[in-house]
Amino acid sequence: MYCKYCGREINEGAEFCGFCGKRQNGVEGRKIYGHEFTRLKAPKEPRNPKAAAAIGFFLSWIFLGPVGYIYLGQWNWFWLTFIIQIFAYPLTAFFAYPLLPIVYGIHQYQMAKDVNELYARERRALQENGVGSSGEPPSGTPEA
Prior knowledge:
mainly alpha
C-alpha cells in the first residue's frame, strides 16, 4: 500500500503513514466522483499533491488553471473546468479571477491525494493477483 500524500510504501491497511504521519482516508464516500464524467482514473505513477496544487494555483493567474488536471491525468476534469472557466469570468464580471486560483489549488491538491489512493489500490490489486508492476507475471511463476 502507498501513502496518498507522499507516495511512499506503507504497511497494508495502515491508518497513518509512517513517513509523513498523515491519516489515510478513502474516496469511496465521495459522491462527486460517482458520475461517469467526473470519475477519477488511476494514474500510471503517483502524483505529488503539492505540485498539482502549485500548477493549479499559479497557472490560474494566466487563465490556465485547468492544466493541473492534465498533470493528474484527468482529462475529463480538464475539459469540465475549462468550460466552466470560460463562462465564469465574464458572467461574474471577473470577480472569479482572484477566487479560481484558490479553488483550483485546493481541488487539485485533494484530487492528487485521491488519484494516489486509486494508484495504490490498483497496484495492490495487481500484486494480489500475482501480476508485477510491469503487467507481467512475477519471475519464477510458471506460465500457463
